[in-house]
Predict the structure.
Amino acid sequence: MAAVPGVEVRPFAAPEEMAQCEALYRRVFALRADEGSLNARLLIALARNSGIVVGAFAGDQLVGFAFSFLAQDPENGFPYQYSQTAAVLPDWQGCGVGRQLKLAQREVALGRGVRRMRWAFDPFKYRNAHFNLDVLGACASELA
């Protein structure tokens, strides 16, 4: 799939960029101020310690981001990135930004020698299931 015109997807480079993620996360997931949320300090720590944090920018505006952390399969010892969250602003959903974020995560992981990625999703949320299984080509392995 071609890149979304006017959108640049790249690993985050600065703490100031990561600070934009909390507001985007709250908006996408409709969280109130008193509900727990993601914060820039956690994303900075992840990015500096084997995690991957990528953002999608339309000019200076953050329109989506994804983050993952390095994990190890307890049965076989294989390392993998666990993709915890991908969030895209509502106006940008359905146009390829999420796919670009996931592909950027994949490229960073492959560049680090990590060949597997895992994530959880709710199979009853049709759009999320379609994105993970049909668009990204993931394989469901177990129910958690």
Summary: Strands lie at 7-11, 52-58, 61-72, 79-88, 117-118. The chain has a mean pLDDT of 86. The first helix runs from residue 15 to 28.
